[in-house]
Amino acid sequence: MTERVGLHSLKPAKGSRKAPKRVGRGNAGAGGTTAGRGTKGYGARSGSKVRPRFEGGQNPIHMRMRKLRGPHMKKSMPFEPFRTHTQPVNLAALEERFDAGAEVTPDALRTKGLAKRKGIPVKILAQGELSKALTVHAHAFSAAARERIEAAGGTCQIIE
Predict the structure, then answer these.
(1) Which helix (H) or strand (E) holds 123?
(2) What was the pLDDT predicted at 76?
(3) Distance from chain centroid for Cα 58
(4) Is the model's pLDDT at 150 over the cut of 90?
(5) Residues of the chain with pLDDT > 70: what percent?
(6) Which pTM does this prediction carry?
(7) Cα separations (Å) of 14 from 10, 11, 97?
(8) Cβ atoms within 10 A of the Cβ of 123, count?
(9) Run of H or E including 87
(10) Who contacts 43 (Cβ-Cβ below 8 Å, separation ≥6)?
(11) Rounded mean pLDDT of the chain?
């Protein structure tokens, strides 16, 4: 009778897994004497751990950075948690990818290869010319982009 195949009988393919190198088992095996830890120093001792952000005694980055306080300054300490991230889409891209009278939404932009990052607001910028009337739905518009879309006979609709 053949053995039933299930989660209990799964094994990796032959040759796909390699046994870890066994260090500290005598000099005959390649990991003898210092067992890959080098000679002396902090890293050779038992219990040594390199903390994340430890830079080997060099002045660490958080101490090298300037410490100007206040969230309103670009160069202040909380490294820009208040910056708004948007995906830019230029009018030139809309001109070449959409037909006159089309409805431009974030989903439509994604299908045309623009504004591919999901969940990040889309902002329409005014680089390039627009000669078609488009209904553009976006999270933000630059003043010049809004002007040009409306001059071409289109409408701008802000998504909340």
Answers:
(1) strand 122-125
(2) 57
(3) 28
(4) yes
(5) 88
(6) 0.51
(7) 12, 8, 50
(8) 18
(9) strand 87-90
(10) 37, 50
(11) 87
Looking at residue 157, its amino acid is: Q
Give the span between the Cα atoms of 79 and 77, in whole angstroms. 5
Distance from C-alpha of 45 to C-alpha of 38, rounded to nearest angstrom: 10
Q: What sign does the CA torsion over 96, 99, 100, 101 have?
A: negative
The amino acid at 16: S
Give the position of tokens 């623009």. Answer: 114
Q: Look up tokens 């500290």; give the residue.
A: 24
Residues 124 and 142 sit within 8 Å (Cβ to Cβ): yes
**Token pair listed for 13:** 């393919």
Whether the per-residue pLDDT at 77 is higher than 60: the answer is no
Rounded distance between C-alpha atoms, residue 117 and residue 101, angstroms:
25
Q: State which amino acid sits at residue 141.
A: F
Among residues 124, 128, 127, 120, which one has the least CA distance to residue 155? 124
Per-residue pLDDT band for 83 (boundaries 50, 70, 90) equals: low
Q: And the tokens for 99?
A: 């037909």
Encoded tokens for 148: 């040009």
C-beta atoms surrounding 61 within 10 Å: 9
